[in-house]
Write a structure and sequence with these properties.
Elements lengths: L3 H17 L2 H4 L10 H24 L1 H26 L4 H46 L2 H10 L1 H10 L3 H45 L7 H40 L5 H12 L5 H16 L1 H27 L7 H44 L1
Helix pairs in contact: 4-5, 4-8, 4-9, 5-10, 9-10, 9-12, 9-13, 10-11, 11-12
Length: 373
């Protein structure tokens, strides 16, 4: 039986043992202070190095990511046609096959029917370029500039200089590599677009499952609206560009530039796809060739494209794009400028539907939450 004296003795011995235990051994179980400046700085440096490494990896695969984004963008743009065929009774696999074959057939028709004509007309433009250069040299203002700055002599020296051979060789090699890269990238985009288009419903369902179950229905609704707006924008941009190209083709035949009409109309169509600046660039190219051919024709081109761009901006574009993107003009300009500065032409093409998606999310999600608070 334990007596009070025994308990007192144990208490005394335990107190004496704690007193004799070294202070260092009693503190060895103290947890490490993770909030010291050294610890915070160490983990911050580790995080910065990891972020730098991941950023380098993303930059190294930046070209592949751009191809993936472009392919997904094209797949979303072609998806309305696939769904339209699906509503007519075709299975999705057959609808995808029909749409892809139609697109490839249109491209093949363009290459077979228009490329030879465009090549002949481009060669004609190149053959007439020396005559246009002589006409520019006979201009009094050009002569005054040449007398003061020797512009013509410097251009001739640059063309006939010693480094021209290597520059031309390097340019030819560079052009060849760029052509091969273009075809390789085109093949990759076509294959990825086909895969994305065939599996787009599965991709959407997999993405929507990442949302919480409580808000999954709302996320699905907003996601479908965003994808529909992107698809409508792609088809709308195609229609606007085709309208510009066909109108330019008719005008060029009427005004007297029938020799270059097909080539210049194709240039206008391709450039008109680029938001904001594409139509202006096409007008500048056509007007410059018109002035080089005949000042009256150049003046007619200038008047026509100034009037047509107003008609396109205020009549065609709003009616075509009213169901896809409903953005103020200032946001369209800012989005196009930011996209072009980040990714060039691809960024300019993707900027407007991206801005429309962000605006939709702000209007449907952010603003209602602010009203509740």
């Amino acid at each position: 039986m334990t007596t009070p004296a025994t308990r007192a003795g144990r208490v005394t011995r335990s107190s004496r043992d704690r007193a004799e235990t070294p202070v260092a051994s009693r503190r060895k179980h103290t947890p490490l202070n993770r909030r010291t400046p050294f610890t915070i700085g160490f983990w911050a440096a580790i995080g910065a190095l990891l972020a730098y490494w991941l950023g380098g990896l993303l930059l190294s695969i930046g070209s592949i990511l751009i191809l993936i984004v472009v392919s997904l963008f094209l797949a979303i743009g072609l998806n309305p046609a696939v769904e339209w065929l699906g509503r007519r009774g075709l299975r999705r696999s057959l609808a995808v096959l029909v749409v892809v074959v139609a697109v490839l057939a249109a491209l093949a028709l363009f290459l077979v029917a228009l490329v030879p004509v465009i090549a002949d007309q481009v060669n004609l433009i190149v053959d007439n370029a020396p005559k246009w250069a002589k006409e520019l040299q006979s201009d009094r203002r050009i002569q005054r500039l040449d007398d003061r700055y020797h512009v013509i002599d410097q251009a001739q020296n640059a063309i006939t200089g010693k480094g021209v051979g290597s520059a031309v060789f390097g340019g030819v090699v560079g052009v060849g590599l760029k052509v091969l890269s273009f075809f390789a990238n085109t093949f990759i985009v076509v294959v990825l677009t086909l895969y994305f288009l065939a599996t787009l419903p599965k991709v959407k369902r997999a993405g929507y499952r990442l949302a919480p179950a409580s808000s999954r229905a709302r996320v699905t609704e907003l996601g479908d609206r965003i994808l529909q707006s992107v698809g409508a924008y792609v088809s709308g941009a195609f229609l606007v560009a085709m309208a510009a190209g066909l109108t330019s083709l008719v005008f060029l035949f009427v005004v007297g530039l029938g020799k270059y009409a097909v080539a210049l109309a194709a240039v206008v169509t391709l450039l008109d796809v680029i938001p904001m600046i594409g139509a202006t660039l096409g007008a500048v190219v056509v007007t410059a060739i018109g002035f080089a051919t005949d000042p009256k024709i150049g003046l007619y081109c200038l008047i026509f494209y100034v009037a047509y761009q107003q008609f396109e901006n205020y009549v065609i574009y709003p009616r075509v794009m009213s169901k896809s993107v409903n953005l103020p003009g200032s946001i369209i300009v800012i989005a196009a400028l930011v996209g072009a500065s980040l990714l060039g032409v691809v960024g300019a093409l993707l900027a407007i539907p991206t801005a429309a998606a962000i605006t939709l999310l702000v209007r449907e999600v952010v603003v209602p939450r602010q009203q509740i608070r």
